Amino acid sequence: MLEIKDLHASINGKEILKGINLTIKDGEVHALMGQNGAGKSTLSNVLVGHPAYEVTQGSIIFNGKDLLALKPEERAHEGIFMSFQTPVEIPGVSMVNFMRAAVNAKRKYLGEEPLTAGEFLKIMREKRKIVELDNKLANRSVNEGFSGGEKKRNEIFQMAMLEPTFAILDETDSGLDVDALRIVADGFNKLRKENTSAMVITHYQRLLDYLKPDIVHVLLNGKIVKTGGPELALEIENRGFDWIKAEIEA
User: Fold this and answer.
1) What is the pLDDT of residue 175?
2) What's the whole-model pTM score?
3) Alpha carbons 151 and 131: distance in angstroms, whole number
4) Are the beta carbons of 175 and 84 closer than 8 angstroms?
5) Across residues 136-160, what is the average pLDDT?
6) Where do the structural domains in the chain lie, given as residue ranges?
7) Does residue 250 carry a pLDDT above 70?
8) How far is Cα 194 from Cα 110, in angstroms, rounded to an integer?
9) What pLDDT is attached to residue 138?
10) pLDDT tier at 167 (50, 70, 90 boundaries)?
11) CB atoms within 10 A of CB 55
């Protein structure tokens, strides 16, 4: 599904990614761990096409297409979705209108007919149940007045509506209490299919206890320096990252 080769990227002239190599197959969930400033969020922003980041070297192939040649909205329509660390509020724009516009824009890109109001509202009700999103929240402006947990739940609801094939969860567990974390993780797990994949960026094991990644990577100083199974995340939880640094320097 996703193949990244020798990816280098900078922001404001400072190189952050220094040669990322990563392959994610259909159906796989990969966890990306690392200290602050290691480049985890930079990688996610590069994947979705954030204009502030400049790719200076390397390639990204997504489902056979050159991802770097696509505009941000085209990447979204092709099936890439990112749940943000801090979802923004959009006052004056209702969730219903926002999601209907997003869903129909994707359908237009794929050559499909737009959903009628009735069809859309039926799907919205079904998807809202997946993440236990209150109907009152769904009828308010996007994220306006939402708690941290409600914003993250709303992100997973948007993911359910857009049905991406590749989801990036960028520290979705940040600021969540145990109950909110469970609801968000359960919603994500219900949306998983054989042909969908994900990259989960986190500092903590607790989210991975719910999501159960297939592969765990450690990103340090702009490079993936260690890869393993779920047991690697447990080891990091117990020992931190210093032992990996020492291993590299030895």
Assistant:
1) 67
2) 0.89
3) 12
4) no
5) 79
6) 2-185+195-232
7) no
8) 21
9) 67
10) very high
11) 16
CA atoms within 13 A on the CB side of 144: 12
The helix-helix angle for 117-130 and 178-191 (nearest 10°) equals: 130
Nearest to 156 by CA among 202, 179, 190: 190
**Which SS3 state, helix, strand or coil, does residue 177 take?**
coil
Closest CA to 201 of 170, 222, 228, 226: 170
Q: Closest Cα to residue 31, out of 154, 201, 173? A: 201
- Which pair of structure tokens corresponds to residue 225? 């320096």
> Which has the higher per-residue pLDDT, 237 or 15?
15
Element spanning 24, H or E: strand 14-24
Residue 239 has pLDDT above 80, yes or no: yes
Q: Which helix (H) or strand (E) holds 104?
A: helix 95-109
The single-letter DSSP state of residue 79 is T
Question: 103 and 115 in contact (C-beta within 8 Å)?
Answer: yes
**CA 37 remoteness from chain centre:** 18
Q: What is the CATH number of domain 2-185+195-232?
A: 3.40.50.300
Residue 162: how many other CB atoms lie within 10 Å: 19
- The b/e string for 183-218 (b: 16+ C-beta within 10 A; e otherwise) is bbbbbbeebeeeebbbbbbbbebebbeebebebbbb
Query: Tell me, what DSSP letter sits at residue 175?
Result: T
